[in-house]
Amino acid sequence: MENSIKSIDQTPEYDEIVNVVQLYVEGFQGEIDKLKEAFHEDAWILAIAADGVLSKDLISGRFERWAASHRPVKGRVIQVTQAGEVASVLLGFDNMEDLADSWVDVLTLLKLDGTWKITHKSAVHSSRAAWAKPQ
Prior knowledge:
Shape: globular
Number of helices: 3
Helix content: 10-25%
Strand content: 35-45%
């Protein structure tokens, strides 16, 4: 059988995609408008905490809490993949006060009406993220 997977060395809209992810990261500094700009209104989150408990809900329900947290986080882009109007980002979401309390996200984005939006977030506490956790 012929291998149909192609390796792409370049993501055509890398900067635009990463800029949307940066809006998400900056939203934790009291910037609820940046969260609203980054995420589609119907985006969902599924996350596994350090203790293995799964949580899930609409991300928009977390905006106020996230923005009010003023958590000192840094986004660490590990990988960006794009195929036309769909993209994914593997992101280290590093808590700069306590790296042991960080997360690793897989963000799915769609280009809707010419604008990239995060439509889904799967996250795992960094203690469960093997090689992708912050060093």
